Amino acid sequence: MNTRTVYVPTPDGNALATDVCLPDGTRPLPAVLIRTPYGREAHRAELRGWAAHGFAALAQDVRGRHGSPGEWHPYRDHERTDGAATVDWVRAQAWSNGEVVAVGASYAAYCALVTALAAPETACDAGPDAVIAAVPALGLTETAREPGGPERLWARAGWWAAHGDRRDSDPDALARALADDPRLLEHLPVARLADRLAASLGRELPSWSRLWADRARGRLVALGSTARLPLLAVGGTRDPFAEDTMALWRGWGGPSRLLLGPWGHGLTADPAAPGRARVNLGALYVRWAREALAGRLEPTRHGVIALGDSGRWHSTRLPSTLRPASTQAATPQYAAAQEEAEWRAGVDRAGAESRWSFDSPTGLRLLHGAEFNADPDRPVRSDDLAVPADGERADRCLLLSPPLPRPLDLAGAAVARINVTADTPSADWAVRLTALDPAGRADPLAFGIVRRTGPPGEAADISVPLGTLGRRLPAGTRLRAEIAGHHFPAHARNPHTGEDPVTATRLAPSRRTVNPRGSALHLPVVARRRYVEPAPEICR
Questions:
Q1: What gap in Å lies between CA 438 and CA 13, rounded to an integer?
Q2: I want to staple 128 with a disulfide (CB 3.0 to 4.6 A). Which of 100, 274, 276, 509 is the partner?
Q3: 28 prior amide bond cis, ω within 30
Q4: How far apart are CA 288 and CA 232, in angstroms?
Q5: Which parts of 92-168 fold into alpha helices (H)?
Q6: The whole model's pTM is what?
């Protein structure tokens, strides 16, 4: 095989640096295309792996990054047009058989998806023939804000410090800045945080404000509902964007497969885990790509969810086959509601929703904090699993279950439904669920946060989605639930004044009440165990 660097022209005259790795021989080949802002050279081993299995493999620096000229504006339209132009270029090469699989992780998954969905809106002949989107970061709003509203402060500050407004990357930039300025993320307003960060970085971040100005969510998921090509959506239950992976898989119009492992955003498991749930992703991607290009995938949406690090994988599927083209044109709101109903129906058939009441001795017992003070000057921290001892001033509601009498398998969507009151016009409600082993060691299990606005002092029933779980909890495990008003520095502090947390410059405490009698935790318990091997399930 041989690797060379070429420069692929774009419609506006740029030339994008692209590594091309070809296997030996002269027969026409299917191609795999990776477009990334993180440096094409990091993918050279991956390209060789694809080439060893008979694919032409390409990795391209997006415009304005690393070896490609131009200006990079994250999530702007140039990713769509540049991707479409590259697909056309690939198909024009003598070594190409015309088949293209767009592949990417994180931002590169966004590049793959917009390339796949670009054909009707660009001058390209046709999009790729299949897409592999891993831990997809689907847009400015999706990465900057939780679906329930709160701002993802720490992750966005870290990403912008490492990659924003520069041609290369510096992954440790935020860590160095925090070492110099430990209270950096407390800066107000959040919209001007870049000014303070620039002093530590020695460079400006002019695009920081645009990140928070964008409010459009769900565009790619809505476009995906019109797609006909196959999709492999890969995510992790520990990835902050896991629910975007789920939404993409649920809403895709063509054959779609889900692989949800016990991984974080880097598609790696907990380093302390025994490794029983490890999957050779490279081999699985190759096998799936071959099946997709050959048209051998069933016209369904199904997949697998890992039960933590147990080595067991649970099969899951949406109950209906793909909708006909005439119904694909339904509004995004209608499509989203129908997809959610189908997903819930699929969960119901695979298992049962288990309700853990807050006022039951067999559910979650209130320890303290039915009334607590959410003070943004002393917020509950996202980076500390320790909880206050009895007798300390309550800064959260704390609940604990009895030990599990037997192992419990969880696979599917979890939610906390709580009856609450705040004495401020705006309040965030953060729910953190932790698994405690018999020795008391804490392991994060689920988290969710939503923002509610309404008249101060008005009781409300709210639902806090806790994401998609995939875990096996051993006998003796206890569940600990915390309900708080902040989750800092992972999320920006709600000022409680009714002002936008991005532009607010003053903070106020908020008095909170949780009514145990009207509150419960709902968990997706696997009733009928359908353990499968991931690769055969994904590739059928």
A1: 63
A2: 100
A3: no
A4: 8
A5: 107-116, 140-144, 153-163
A6: 0.92
